[in-house]
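Render this sequence as a predicted structure.
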Amino acid sequence: MTLHVLKIDEGERDLWDQAVITFAHAHPLNAYGWGRVREIDGWKPSYFVAKEGDTVKGMIMVLTKKIPWTGLSIMYAPKGPLCDPSDQNTLNALLTKVRQEGRKKRTIFIRIDPNLAEENVSTGNDPFINEGFIHLEHRWSFWNSPRDVYRIDLTKARNEDELFKTIDHSARKSVRKAQKEGVTIRPAENPGDLKKFYEIFSNVSVEKGFMCRKLKYQEALWSEYIEKGNGQLFLGIYQGEVIGGAICLVFGGKCLGMHMGTASEFMKLQTHSGYVWESLKWAQQLGCSWYSFRGVGTTPAQESFKRKFRPQIVALVGYYDLPFRPLLYRVFYCAEFKVLPMIWRTLMRVRRGYTRFLEAGKTKKLASVRGE
């Protein structure tokens, strides 16, 4: 039969999601809703399906972002493409369509980061290199999912009691400490809960020096995942007030931990362990095969925390770039991997100072209104 590549629109999102979960290496970021979430950041999603008759052979979600004032764009296929890596015909058909889109949108390059472990792709016969991709050596990127991740195998425990025993003694102690201190953890009930969490999380991001997207991004996670039963926001409650929380996404029998944070004055309550534990229980109840932290810890503190849950390190095959405009691609590559790392800390310091300046202005204005 002839292989056809079709473009899927909003009215067929259920067909997309139903097809995605048939692939063994499907990931929560392959869901149709992830493209809608990324639209908040200016990425325009396109969805392509390769079919042979009525059989879906492969899929790829392509996010396109315009570069201001240039007429150019870049593309990214999160956790894609989805297909049997050995099926070169399907891969070629999908990428032929991507190349056509790239020409229309004056794209510099497309980056992919398939949800495949390194050992599942032969270095001597790499299907992506065979299609013209460059395999990057980098283990981490400022704008893509991490290459090395911690995953907790949920299939090893038959019930909640067994699951609790699989995590380290120190993690179990932290969970119990939060409970003894009077912390309760419950699912968020409405967008108002989400807003309370965001206010805390955004402040934590400034204190810790990592990027935090706008509230609209969190609201998109709520509408595209949580409201549809494919995600959860667990809130930490102490003395009747929200003190933090964690968002996790579920799709295709996998659970992905996303954003987590507790107000600094309540860190001693060990709430982070409580968030993860509630996420693990919830994911197991839904029949998920694994829970994943976004990546291996980038700081000693993060590393120590994540290891308390006895995860496995999964080294994914990583990033591949397919340049459409080689000269401009080299400029982008240099900016991403050479210039940005040198100025990142400065950018974070400027952001922290600017945020504190705005907060001071709000406080002064409020005091003026009150006549203080």
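Summary. Residues 149-315 form a domain with the Aminopeptidase fold (CATH 3.40.630.30). The CA atoms of residues 195 and 215 lie 7 Å apart.
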